[in-house]
Write a structure and sequence with these properties.
The protein has one domain. It is built from 4 helices and no strands. Helix 2 packs antiparallel against helix 3 and helix 3 runs antiparallel to helix 4. The chain is elongated.
């Protein structure tokens, strides 16, 4: 397969939208951590402490997710530059790294979503139907 400029260019909107989604998750979790921290300071509830630990893990995962998405974006840009300079083999290698970075980012997102369900389970633990 011949790598052309249009192939890495297709990643631009996908990566940009992914970064927006990751950033929205990060901001929502950060706000929740601040709110729970205030509640924990006044009540010292164990349940809140557990939730804060889970949210801390989620923030770490989202930060890694964002980092790999950024590497993917930079790889796509570098691939286009290398194609422009007619360094085809190097462009192919960098593009493979870029795609791999996006795959790692998505896997980390899947893990973060699984961790987020644990936080919800902690919240729902004391409600009986």
């Amino acid at each position: 397969m011949n790598l052309t400029m249009s192939i890495p260019a297709l990643l631009f909107p996908a990566i940009s939208l992914t970064m927006l989604a990751y950033n929205a998750r990060y901001l929502a979790i950060a706000a929740l951590v601040r709110q729970l921290h205030k509640e924990y300071k006044t009540s010292h509830e164990k349940n809140i402490g557990v939730q804060i630990k889970i949210l801390s893990r989620r923030l770490t995962l989202i930060r890694a997710t964002q980092g790999f998405a950024i590497l993917s974006f930079m790889g796509a840009v570098l691939t286009m530059l290398l194609l422009f300079l007619e360094m085809i083999f190097t462009a192919d290698v960098i593009f493979i790294i870029s795609l791999s970075s996006m795959m790692i980012s998505l896997i980390l997102l899947l893990i973060e979503i699984q961790v987020s369900t644990k936080a919800l389970q902690v919240q729902l633990k004391d409600i009986k139907i």
